[in-house]
Amino acid sequence: MPHLLNVWPRVSRQIAGADHVLLLLDYDGTLAPIAGRPDLAVLPPRTREALLAVQRLARFTLGIVSGRGLADVREMAGIPGLVYAGNHGLEIESSDEAFIHPEAKELRPHLDLVLEALQERLSDLQGVFVEGKGLTLSVHYRLTPEELRPQLMEEFDEVMGRVALGERIRITKGKEILEVRPRVDWHKGRAITRISAGFPHGTLPIYFGDDLTDEDGFQAVHELNGITVFVGPARQPTKAQYRVDSPAEVAETLELLARL
Asked: Is the pTM of this model over 0.90?
């Protein structure tokens, strides 16, 4: 998988030849470095300036597709006028629409009960942060000592076995995070397909992401003949066409796009 900046002349020609570009990016680990707690993952000033510079280009539409809740990612990014998709695309906000997946909305009261049970059981474990995001919830354990992680997993499984809603929810794993989500046929890829449908033929979609949940996004963009970029180390299994090393190189790429 080639490094994007090593093949930039070729890729930039493809981007320059597009009638319009829909540039979508994940937030944590892509635009902002991953932090021990989600509230500490601040968008670097350089990245913010680069996003604003690209946003000013008439040929570009920018959006953020995140596992965070919609209001949270909108606040963390702090840039008006972007397309925002939160909770892995279960909620989408743009100038044209405000979408909430109806089945996920229906299951929200049940997720609230799961959230309450997990907070009660896990709140005393060192470094564990249980985050309610409305339509989904996350258990962050990046700051939890290694020796306590087996206990965390055991207690998490015990709670989920007691309060789980059968086939109505599912559990996924990311980078030192456990996620509880509605079991609906929806993910970042479907959200990207929905967003892309609002743009005319000739629009080139581009997606940057760093985690397992972004693989659905990469697949959707491939089906739309777009460009996909994985953010992370070489030799990481991914469907993406290209890679960059870090959020700092994402900022560098945004600066290059602003100069196209």
From this structure: yes
Parallel, antiparallel, or unpaired: how do β-strands 98-100 and 91-93 relate? antiparallel
**How far is 140 from 238, CA to CA, in rounded Å?**
23
Residue ranges in the chain whose pLDDT is less than 70: 164-166
What's the start-to-end Cα distance of the chain, in Å? 24
**Identity of the residue numbered 24:** L
Which 3-state string (H, E, C) describes the chain? CCEHHHHHHHHHHHHHCCCEEEEEECCECCCECCCCCHHHCCCCHHHHHHHHHHHCCCCEEEEEECCCCHHHHHHHHCCCCCEEEEHHHCEEECCCCEEECHHHHHHHHHHHHHHHHHHHHHCCCCCCEEEECCCCEEEECCCCCHHHHHHHHHHHHHHHHHHCCHHHEEEEEECCEEEEEECCCCCHHHHHHHHHCCCCCCEEEEEEECCHHHHHHHHHHHHCCCEEEEECCCCCCCCCCEEECCHHHHHHHHHHHHCC
Q: Which amino acid makes up residue 193?
A: T
* The one catalytic residue among 26, 28, 210, 214: 26
Q: Has 185 been annotated as catalytic? A: no
